Amino acid sequence: MDFSSHSLYGGAITADIPNSFRDVSTFRPEIPDNQEVFVSDLEELLVIEILEPLDHLTDKTAAPWYLLNLFEESGGILSESTTTPNTVLPTVQSLHDSNHAVFLVDGKSNLQYSALVLLRLKDHNCDILFSISKSEANNDEIQTWKAFLARIISSFHLLDANLFT
User: Fold this and answer.
1) Using the 8-state DSSP alphabet, how is residue 149 labeled?
2) Which terminus in the chain has less CB density within 10 A, N or C?
3) Which pTM was predicted?
4) Contacting residues for 50 by C-beta, under 8 A, at least 6 apart
5) pLDDT in tens, 60-88
6) For the segment 128-154, what is each residue's pLDDT rounded down to a tens digit?
7) How many other C-beta atoms are found inside a 10 Å radius of the C-beta of residue 70?
8) Terminal Cα-to-Cα distance of the chain (whole angstroms)
C-alpha cells in the first residue's frame, strides 16, 4: 500500500494517507471545518476529526466511548469491541515534547465495522479522532485498517498549534 503526505486543516497538520483514499471535500464541499474526510474505492470511509475533550472521559475510557458514539450516531448498536494497549501503537514523533496519549479501539455494530485511533493532545485541550469505517469488513481488512491508522499516527505532524485556539 502506497501513502502520500497530505496537508490537513489548511496546512496546520500533515499526515500520510493511503493513496487509494480520495479527499471527499473535492466533490462534496459541505464537510464540517473540524473534519477531514476521505473515501476509498472499496467504500471505506476515513475521517479525521478534532473535538473538545469531554471532562467525564478518562484516557482509559475515551476511545471506547468515541467508538460507541460513532456507532450510535449512525444508528447502530455496538456488538463487539477490542481495545489495543497503548504500548503497541507508534509514537507520534512530532509530539515528543508534548503531553499526549494515543489509544486504538476497533469494533462492529449491526450496521458497520470501524477502527478508531484517539490522539489526546492535552497541551492543546483537544482530542483528534482518526477512524476508518465500512458497512462490511473481514478481520484482514480490520487489521489493514489498524496498520493504516498506525502509519497515519506515526506520520502526524502538527505544524501550527494556532489551529486549536
Assistant:
1) H
2) C
3) 0.90
4) 9, 34, 35, 126, 127, 128, 163, 164
5) 889 899 999 999 988 888 888 887 655 44
6) 999 999 999 988 998 899 889 989 988
7) 22
8) 35
Going by their DSSP bridges, the two strands 45-51 and 126-134 should be labelled as antiparallel
Q: Is 102 exposed, middle or buried (0-12, 13-18, 19+ CB in 10 A)?
A: buried
3-state class of 124 per DSSP? helix
List domains and CATH numbers for the chain. Answer: 3-164 (3.40.1000.10)
| Three-class SS state of 42 | coil
CA 129 to CA 156: how far, in whole Å?
12
Q: Can you say how many angstroms the Cα of residue 5 is from the centroid of all Cα atoms in its chain?
A: 16
Provide the pLDDT confidence category of residue 92 given band limits of 50, 70 and 90: low
Q: Which three cell numbers stand for residue 92?
A: 507520534
Return the ∠ at Cα 87 (arms to 82 and 91), rounded to 5°. 110
Which amino acid is it at 88? V
